[in-house]
Sequence to fold (235 residues):
Amino acid sequence: MDEKKLAIIATKGSLDWAYPPFILASTAAALGYETQIFFTFYGLQLLKKKLALEVTPLGNPGMPMPGGMDKWFPVLGMTLPGMQGMVTSMMKQKMKSKGVASIEELRELCIEAEVKLVACQMTVDLFDMERTAFIDGIEYAGAAAFFEFAGDSDICLYI
Amino acid sequence: MADFDQELDASGLNCPLPILRAKKTLSSMGAGQILHIIATDPGSVKDFEAFSKQTGNELLESKEEGGKFYFLIKKA
Fold:
């Protein structure tokens, strides 16, 4: 059986959107896929040594809020200082109580399973990011390198 | 219940952790050995079927009892 390939582009840097690339990549690797994630723009946040990912209901009306908070709490209230941090820690608590892995854990599982993590060099330069801020063992490349892998892939996802 | 060589308790863990833990445990086992998995994630029923089909590790048994899910997987 030929090894299947999964190519993912991760473009988002919030706590909620960090999940799909790492869940799918780690699972695919467990199923025997050769897997690569190309992190670009805000997706680069997912490669930082110190993850500081947050989640917000702002501009995100589909996000369920505990206790009907979204019903009695006006949207403007969510812009108050500290609200994003509070919502983020509530979300993290909820995930923990439901046995959902942390992003740190899923990322580690991806690395263990030899998922190749590639940082978009252009975005690293654009945002003046230092390579020392990123975890070790990742590669730095551009669009052409992505296509070298994605062109041969069986599944290609843009997240 | 059939005999098994190793047991993995994935109770309380949610997708995709039961699959990932099972994969990891299976890779430390020998061909033909049997892994018994306990899970509480209802999604794991379909997921272990799919895992088995895609990896060739045979799903010998899948059952629910008292809100828990039990699987027997034979390593290919």
Remarks:
- Chain A is about 35% helix and 15% strand.
